[in-house]
Design a protein that fits this description.
The chain contains 7 helices and 18 strands. Strands 1-2-5-6-9-7 form a 6-stranded antiparallel sheet. A 6-stranded antiparallel sheet has the order 10-11-14-15-18-16, covered by helices on one side. It starts with a helix and ends in an 8-residue tail after the last helix.
Length: 305
């Protein structure tokens, strides 16, 4: 009897193991074929749960420290994108890519050039080394097509050597800018403060209110560009106030003219309409920088909400 009971127990255990194995096999087969193709295209692994394919893009290539304390990748440095079916059968893709500062703008251009949207760019940490930023993305279409749109950007991740924060800086040269030429290109005059020529443009086309108070340029609802340097070697830094519908065209205008986007975020909450702010930086001949800023300005006011 004891031998029979032992045999029965062993048989039951073997059966349970087989059932578990079959269940795992069945779960793997439940991944839709188009999602399996997505993972092949981007050469990344993922999982399928709750009708969502989530593909991981962890930054295992980076040795991250925060305030000198070594931290593993799962401590906030695991990038990803996810897909799920919408009501029309097409897929929605959203994601959060972890990028070194050298990767941000090449990846952004790859996304924009292939029809995807960049919806946020920000930091998650202070004192991290190397510096990393988090880029949120969005797209809509067929899964395999979205994968092909994503692939050029995904392929850029992990191939740029982070720059040491201890790199030597270049002192700015005495400013000798042709400010009249810059103003003519931009279509707006600015103000000179020491070596900096700054052009500030309000969004008078928008009726933005917060708690009933009208928000104007002096309250921070403005777009600006600050130029410094010489005509041949200048730098520009600035901020652009955009409606949600203006974000993607403005990003494309800046990137196509060689300016780097360094942040996309809110400055206000509880305001109507919603205004998004974008910060940028560039270096080169002053007239080219002014032309790039003008190209971004030309995207504003076209699609008022």
């Amino acid at each position: 009897m004891v031998a029979i009971k032992k045999f029965t127990i062993i048989l039951m255990l073997l059966l349970a193991i087989c059932i578990a194995g079959l269940a795992q096999s069945s779960a793997a087969q439940e991944i839709p074929s188009d999602y399996q193709e997505v993972m092949k295209i981007v050469s990344k692994q993922g999982d399928y749960k709750a009708s969502v394919l989530k593909v991981n893009i962890p930054r295992n290539d980076l040795h991250m420290t925060i305030a000198g304390y070594s931290v593993p990748t799962p401590c906030g440095f695991g990038g990803w994108f996810a897909m799920t079916k919408g009501d029309d059968g097409a897929d929605v893709v959203m994601g959060d890519l972890v990028l070194t500062q050298e990767e941000v703008n090449p990846v952004m251009s790859a996304l924009l050039d292939h029809g995807l949207e960049v919806t946020a760019l920000h930091n998650h940490f202070f004192w991290e080394e190397p510096r990393v930023f988090f880029m949120h993305i969005h797209g809509h279409g067929k899964a395999v097509e979205l994968a092909n749109q994503l692939k050029p950007a995904v392929d850029l991740i992990g191939h740029s050597k982070p720059t040491s924060s201890g790199a030597s800086s270049t002192a700015p040269k005495q400013s000798t800018l042709d400010t009249e030429k810059i103003a003519k290109i931009v279509g707006n005059a600015g103000e000179q403060t020491g070596p900096v020529y700054k052009i500030t443009i309000g969004r008078d086309d928008l009726d933005v209110k917060e708690m009933g108070a009208k928000i104007n340029a002096r309250m921070g609802l403005n777009t600006w560009a600050a130029f410094v340097g010489t005509n041949d070697d200048a730098a520009v830094a600035g901020d652009i106030a955009m409606l949600e519908s203006e974000v993607q065209p403005t990003l494309k205008a800046l990137r196509s003219h060689g300016l780097d986007v360094v942040a996309i975020h809110h400055h206000m909450i509880n305001s109507s309409p919603v205004v998004i702010f974008l910060h940028y930086w560039g270096r080169g001949p002053a007239d080219k920088l002014a032309t790039a800023f003008k190209a971004a300005l030309d995207q504003l006011g076209k699609g008022k909400q």
